[in-house]
Specification:
The structure is a single chain. By secondary structure, this protein is mostly helical. 71% of the residues lie in helices and 0% in strands. Helix 7 packs across helix 10 and helix 9 crosses helix 10.
Amino acid sequence: MSAGEKENALGSLLLELLHTRALSIRKCSERTGIDKATISRIINGKRKANLQHLEKFADCLDVPIMKLMRVAGYPTQQSQEKYDSDLLSSVDNIQNILKSSELYDDNFSLELIQEQLATYEQRAQTNEGKQTIYARFEEKLEKAGGIGPFINQLKDLYHRFVKSKGTASELAIVGGVLLYFIIPIDVIPDYIFPIGYVDDAIAVQIAVKSLSN
């Protein structure tokens, strides 16, 4: 698919979402803070939507940003067929980095992340866990900085949790990975620069796969 076709696909999707939600371009502009002319140009394929545009559209139109990114042609989650091999390869690479960096003395494994996620899934179902997510997610997101599939997936998961979209078990999975991200002392503490968030990224992929199953 060419870049132009991807932009037209995004424009068609945005028009469909606006129609479904009974929103005009003017109203969308007011809610997103994006100029009306810019929205029109994006819809008509005359301007490429950047990630900030997509994030605002996702919030306004109540649609996962990963879906908008995929339609717009941005790289998103790798195909499910490659997931397991790529994840295990990433774990092996991280283990090698940790050994050579002398920044982290403990063992690192996929099993440790999964065990920690299971603990947080239980905690996410309590009032204390939920309040931690509501109160601290935005602050932690700001500290993490940046934008991309890992961060955007977390934003999608947070909106899903806040709006209670899913079964109790699905929301437990979502809440568990959000707590994993929020709490700095996880398998690899976040303060270990520059590798403190690599386990968070893997935890997100584990959660996303669990939800897709």
